[in-house]
Amino acid sequence: MFSCTTERSQPVRTWTNLLLPNDATLGHALRMLDEAHTDFLVVADNAQKLVGVLEDIDIRKALLAGYPLDKAAATVAKEPSVHGKAASNKYSIVLNDRNEIVEIRAAERLTQPARSDNTVVLMVGGAGLRLRPLTTNCPKPLLPIHGEPLLERTIKELAGQGFHKIILTVSYKSEMITTHFKDGSHWNVEISYIHEKQRLGTCGALGLLSELPSEPLVVMNGDVITDLKLANILSFHRQTGALVTVGLHSYPIHVPYGVVEYEGTTLTAMHEKPIISRWISAGIYVLSPSALNLIPRGRFFDMPTLLQTILAGGDTVSTFPLYEHWMDIGSIEEYRRANKILDLEQTTAVACPPEIAEMPSPL
Question: Which residues are registered as beta bridge partners of 254?
């Protein structure tokens, strides 16, 4: 019998939903992970015999390596004999003497969101210049997305994932944000504030933290909408031992011309108006407490500078690719798109002055 055990494991309600067919693709595996609300799948053949185990992070690494979504997921899965010990805190797989799967037991933390002691910092101090005139009288975090403020949606999502310690870095029209969210008790979270009296860059405000956290710190741009479960990137960060982990998003670039390939002076191929994908920063980071010592207090310091400082010192910065839904609400076009995706034809302001509510809809 092959079994990797855990003291606090329990049967998955429908454990057969965790069985991934041996011929399934990475795209199929992603859909199953989302539907099962877990971070691992068990690869099995037609006779339900164990082939391997596929974790969420295995798929992310494959995507970062350039694997297409139609790639066979089994080629990425880990061998059971190797994988079992490493994943003993996540699940146990019970087999009979014919190597057939009898039961899968998942750790409790995979079936119920755990309360997290990690602090989440949301950077919401920007003036939202690219969203003018919508942000003339209303800070970007309070602009409505599907009828409620963008930042409120984010805080509700964080609370639902078990995060209860939140810091907001505020500057532009900060009094409107602090008046709306107060101490966060309405959403069962604890909200505190860092007030930027001058522009400090994408991570300079972290130099104003009253005390260093004992656990890794999650830092997010306040205009990001995503389905990412932060527990996944935190787990990965701890595994790598990096000072900083950077969340990545695959961004398509539409080239409006024919792109050629050549050797010497000879044309070997031509691609008409291709779409080229590049990995970009998703505005989601995990910082080890020691990384915060590199941020100066009270002066401009952006995230690229921090990352370059870490790399120059010989320490590690890890990358964590997102496959989840991700949007950056940084422009009128993206603001329209966010509301249209949520099937909203017209927005109304929430917790903003009458001027914005009376404005013509941007949609």
Answer: 275
Neighbours of 136 (CB within 10 A): 14
Tens of pLDDT, residue by residue over 11-39, are 445 677 788 898 899 989 988 888 777 78
Higher pLDDT, 85 or 90: 90
Return mean pLDDT, the chain. Answer: 83
Verify cis geometry, omega within 30 degrees of 0, for the bond prior to 133: yes
For residue 353, give the nearest of 193, 135, 187, 126 by alpha carbon: 135
Cα separations (Å) of 324 from 54, 210, 240, 327? 17, 33, 21, 10
- Are 194 and 101 in a shared domain? no
Amino acid identity, position 318: S
Q: From 111, 140, 170, give the residue that closes a domain.
A: 111
The whole-model pTM stands at: 0.80
- Regarding whether 183 and 55 lie in a shared domain, the answer is no
Which residue in 78, 90, 182, 273 is the catalytic one? 273
Domain of 289?
116-357
Residue 207 and residue 95 in one domain: no
Can you read off the two tokens belonging to residue 16?
A: 């057969």
Token digits for 250? 């695959």
78 is catalytic: no
Same domain, 27 and 129: no
Contacts of 82-85 with CB under 8 Å at 24 or more apart are: 83/4, 83/52, 83/53, 84/2, 84/3, 84/4, 84/53, 85/4
CATH of the domain at 45: 3.10.580.10
pLDDT at 342: 59
What CATH number corresponds to the domain at position 269? 3.90.550.10
